[in-house]
Give the backbone structure.
Amino acid sequence: MKIGVFGGSFDPVHLGHLLLAEQCLTVANLDLIKFIPAAVSPFKQDQKPTDGQLRIEMLSLAIAGHEKFEVDTLEIDRANAENGRVEQGNVSYTVDTLIQLKQNTPDAELFLLMGADSLIDFHGWKEPNRICELATPIIVRRPPATHVDYNLLADFMDQKKLNRVKDLAFQSLQIEISSTTIRNSVKEEKSIRFQTTRAVEEFIRSKQLYA
């Protein structure tokens, strides 16, 4: 089984996330994509995320009915188990998540969805060598950038695997939506129609999130 691992804050999930996941399904011929909301992102430790359970519910609403999309709560569950509250939870490191996924599904082949811009700082991630042992990165180029410096991965995998990473890389369709923009729009009482799913839009309104 080929499983794509899509991590992020998803605060909130939007159509850009869903479109990217759908493209990865096709490019890598994946059987499943796991959306894994972070308890605390390593790159956003100075920001307090929306309650983890609310982000899980929004993700579940967004992917409802898609037989190859699944929400996996392991990062938030791990933080809850260790600290009692997501807001005080440990940082969600990719390597820890991949180790846990491999333990849970030992026969699965894991693929890590990564933006090409992430490669610049990849050497500073926790245990990048181990990450590349556990999963094959799917590098997503986002317009207008089209160049990927694969040499940034050369220290963490052999040439055979690097060639496979190059084969799987693709340029995503351009869609200018971000979670930050959605949060700001809600705060300013502007429409977020067609930026996320209708179900998520209604959930945000009913829970008065980001207002």
Confidence is low (pLDDT under 50) at residues 85-89. Residues 15-28 form the longest helix (14 residues). The radius of gyration is 17 Å.
